[in-house]
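Quick note —
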Amino acid sequence: MRNIWSPDLSALSGIIQELNPSKIILLVDENTHDRCLPHLIITIPELDGAEILEVPAGEETKSLEIASELWLGLNDLGADRSSLLLNLGGGMITDLGGFVASTFRRGMHFIHIPTSLLAMVDAAIGGKTGVNLGPYKNHIGTFCPPQATLVSPVWLETLSQRQLLAGFAEILKHALIADENYWQESSCVSEMTGDHLTPLLERSIEIKEALVLEDPEEKGPRKALNFGHTIGHAIESLSLQSEHKLLHGEAIGLGLIYETMISEKRGLISSEESERILATLKMWYADLPHETSPDKWWPLMLKDKKNRGDEVNCTLLKGLGKAFINQKLELEELRGISIA
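Predicted structure written out below.
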């Protein structure tokens, strides 16, 4: 697994030459097809004549039905185990494309080219692949690292403020679980622009990469990365069934707020620490429309893939920059927290 910082994308040519694939296929959604694919093809001459598979944008695409269509598409294109799938897109594309590639003919080469901030610092890093099972996030998937993940800030210019804010939630999470000094830096961001966010990319990638290398299959320390996700995933799933659909990172931002509150309620962080953390998180995420009733979250949380038996497993904070994994949540405890 290689995470490569390549601002001009030129490193991709060398990787393709090294792999010498029998065929190159590009997986895109309708957004990256229009906004990113032309630039990539012009920049990388080895992509001349590459095949293209396009899927609809949006989290609903990350399904077994779409995965099956892509397997058939790869088969129709004559792909084999030495072919290369390039996943050009955000977290949905890297999750879906990684899953499809890792299972097609028991595994073909794939490379991630993340184009969203969230994918650059989180989804495309770490070798997790997956699709959703109905309302349940990432229930079907594999641990399978790509041949490389190519990170370039050039794509930040293609993103809306909303997309940048969604990715920023994962940057804040990395700081909260691993690096108090990094929290000081990231919490001072005043605008959602590429210029403000690019300096943070490499440190976030370093934090996630270190946890993944220590614990590739999430049996211990890597669980720190789940902070904000137990409640966040439930909020996201509920939003996708409503008129106020949240992006993944937006829901995680809300999850960070609620799980910080639980950390304070349990005495794991001081009220002073909680106040500092929540001041930043609430400034960016508290006003997002979402389901606020824990009784609505709970059925989805009981099906969370991180659970053991019937216990809802969660990661909390034990100080600024320190994660506390394998914490059991109770419904009654959740009923006592509120953003308002």
